[in-house]
Amino acid sequence: MNPRQLLREILYPARSLACVFAMLGFFALLLLAAYARLLGIWLAAIVVPALFRYLIIVAEQRANDREVEPPGIEFFSLGGNLWTLFPAIPLLVLVALIQGAAAWGIASQILLGLGFLAVFPAMMAVLVITHSPAQSLNPVAIYHLIREVGGSYLYAPLLIVVLAFVPDQLVVLPGWFRLLAGLYLAFAFYAVVGGLIREADLIDDLELPDPVLPDQADRASLSLRERRFALNHAYALISRGNRDGGLHHLASHIDSEPDPAAAWPWFLEQMLRWENPDPALYFAQRYLKYLLLHGESVKAVKLLLRCRLQNDEFRPFREDRDAAADAARVCGNNELAESLEKYR
């Protein structure tokens, strides 16, 4: 990211009408919470999580080079997309650590602050890419992202310095103005994080490694949790329109498992539960190829029939249709075989 691109992202909250209205809306709600006493505590508990959620969406939209939309009522619900609330947790932990480090002197507090300054932008970038709080705490993933972004990464920590100190220096100005300035800088920081991801072309292509590089023993005991991480990453890619990237990510993960034969049906079952099951049918084409290559005729025919119940237009890959028809005949399902032969 060059300085001109940096300035473009810093100014984005002022250039985007949706961001301007969102900032003014959050500003009014936070100001009301500050003066509403007991009611303000309840209001802040709703507004602050919604603000963090919206800031992450700002970063994600800028990473995809899309315009940000105004926040809807769903942003003020604590349910759904809980990963977008994660940015609040590192900030709370930092405040607690700094308070606890007061007994060791100012030097320890400065070291904690510098450490946070160095990694927080990368944590938010990994969160935007993977939608996984666990991956955003992954030190290998953080290092990998900083290395891919390069020297431009320094822009983000510098913005945090501005965000932390500039509003406090405006003591001669009214408190409401300092609040508005802080909100603008927060929006600008997340826009810059999204811009760094976009300019480094990481939103779809970055493969983030596991927290611990697996040795042979680790590879023999891949857990259900790791499968879920792979599935969540694939869902994030597919939901952004990169279906091929998501399916390739799943296929690569399955290849790394000690028992791919068990992994294929597990992922298919999970994908069929999605709100939109269409990606599962594209995944099923790959699973069908695997079954045919391994001579699993009965399982291949069962898979074909199940997918055709989901969508009667389902067909294997063109190069697999002869093998699929042969498998259907072996299983005595001549009707299925004849229907497949029509598409040769």
List the helices and strands and how they pair.
Blueprint lengths: L2 H8 L1 H4 L1 H19 L2 H26 L24 H13 L5 H25 L2 H4 L2 H11 L5 H15 L5 H25 L16 H4 L4 H16 L3 H14 L3 H13 L5 H16 L3 H14 L10 H10 L3 H8 L3
Helix pairs in contact: 1-10, 3-4, 3-10, 4-6, 4-10, 5-6, 6-8, 6-9, 6-10, 9-10, 12-13, 13-14, 14-15, 15-16, 16-17, 17-18
Strand fraction equals under 5%
The portion of residues assigned to helices is: over 70%
Number of domains: 2
SSE-based structural type:
mainly alpha
Quick one: how many beta strands? 0
Arithmetic mean of pLDDT = 81
Helix count equals 18
General description of the model:
With 344 residues, this protein is mainly alpha-helical. The chain folds into two domains: 3-199, no CATH class; 216-341, no CATH class. The chain is 71% helix and 0% strand. It contains 18 helices and no strands. The chain has helices at residues 3-10, 12-15, 17-35, 38-63, 88-100, 106-130, 133-136, 139-149, 155-169, 175-199, 216-219, 224-239, 243-256, 260-272, 278-293, 297-310, 321-330, 334-341. α6 (106-130) crosses α9 (155-169). The longest helix has 26 residues, at 38-63. It is elongated, with a radius of gyration of 25 Å. The model is unreliable at 205-222 (pLDDT under 50).
